[in-house]
Amino acid sequence: MSDTLHCPNCPKGKLYPFRPVTAAEEKHIAAELRGKKGAHGFWRCEGSTSLGQCLWVQPYHARSQGFSLPASFS
I need a labelling partner for 7 at 20 to 30 A (CA). Which of 20, 27, 61, 67 fits? Predict the structure, then answer.
């Protein structure tokens, strides 16, 4: 299942496909959040940037709470 949303890391002006995060991504997000909120509701951008696959993750419809995963998730 995927959906299209705006991504702050990808080129502006269009929507990009997002998918639910994988178990490994969710584990990293949970460690980053340190218990502040659930990592289970995060989605990852499937777009491409000049550096390769986009690393942006965010809760669905909460871009301000998103962040980039480390390059090891490329």
Answer: 27
Q: Which residues contact 60 (CB under 8 A, 6 or more apart)?
A: 3, 5, 18, 41, 42, 43
Terminal alpha carbon distance of the chain: 20
Place of tokens 């777009």: 47
Rounded to two decimals, the pTM is 0.86
CA distances for 59 relative to 6, 18, 44, 51, angstroms: 12, 11, 9, 23
Reported as a single tens digit per residue, the pLDDT across 5-58 is 999 999 887 899 999 999 999 999 988 888 666 667 899 999 987 778 899 999
- 8 and 64 Cβ atoms separated by less than 8 Å: no
* Cβ neighbours around 73 below 10 Å, total: 15
- Write out the two tokens for 46: 């499937």
Residue with tokens 């000049």: 50
